[in-house]
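Final report, closing paragraph on structural work. Over the funding period we assembled a curated collection of sequence-structure pairs, and we close with a single example.
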Amino acid sequence: MSTTILSLGSNLGDREEHISRALSLLSEKAGILISVSKPYYSEAMGYVSKHEFCNVCAKYSTALKPLELLQVCQAIELEMGRVKDSKGYLSDRIIDIDILFFDDITLVSEELTIPHPRWSERPFVMRPLTELM
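Its predicted structure, as stored:
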């Protein structure tokens, strides 16, 4: 089994409920939830939005490989109604799930980079992450 740390965020609708549902779906499809941070609330970063984000970090034990975990995360986002902007712009979202770390591996591929390339630049990741370390 591997250990992974994920970042989850939502800024539409019942944000806390969306995150709770995503955590449950991840437990069903990806592995065992070890711990989750308290929610951290912040304004959107990189674009303007009138909707505040709710973010958490979660630690899971998983038998999946990194790219398999990415596929599960993306499938959960779609299942929950996430719509990605076709031009790649940042936008409001029901749920966003990012893989921050996966064991102690470094991975750079077209689909996935681990550790997440901007994890240390984001207060909405850093604050919840400190609770899991």
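Helices lie at 15-29, 66-79, 123-132. The CA atoms of residues 78 and 100 lie 20 Å apart. We thank the funder for supporting this effort.
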